[in-house]
Amino acid sequence: MAVLIGLLKIAFCFVLIISIHELGHAIAAILCGVKVKRFSIGIGPGLKIKNVPILNELIISPIFLGGYVMLDEEALTQKSLLKKLFVYVSGMLSNVLLAILLLVILGANFFKAVFVSFTIWLGGWPIFIAILMKGNVRPEDSVSGPIGIGQMLVGDSMPYLLTVAFISLAIAMFNVLPLPPLDGGRILMAFLEKFLGNQRAAKINRVLQIVGIILLLSLLVFATFNDVVKISK
Fold this sequence. Notes:
The protein is about 70% helix and about 10% strand. With about 230 residues, the protein is of the alpha+beta class.
């Protein structure tokens, strides 16, 4: 029973955070006049529900470690730079707002919750890099993969909702990185298309896609290996 409850906790966390993130993109796109073609909760094959209001096609997959929203990319490319940025930023912003809500539910002061959440989102990487450069924390001690995150969610080191809030902020912070297919990468491409033109930006994007995928997969492997090492100690 405890295992089942633990799995439900993990599933709820990922479904909530990812759905909120993708819903943020979807709502922003609709506000900018861009059609949502498909909204997926989870990844891989799953239950398809068509003719869903606003979302058009909804997919619910049992593989809950992911999700996505499919937009009318052709329509989006024709929008202004500000509208593109609004669509790309809204996923991260939704995660930040979720974290603020959870912190307030847990009793945190609203203004402190806002300050902490936005500081982690926008200043998390500079702070993290500064700490690493000082040598106070080793990279392997500060990186957790899926296994480590699951342990945090089912453990009792801190309240469950607080863990969900910080994971939501971590997702927002992670997406700041200017690497496709992350939101930060799409923001970078929007600027490159604006100032370099679509053709030159497309060439750069192809290179960044490869680099981004390699780096993200490497980070996932490192984090997962790190989790296994921690468990085995």
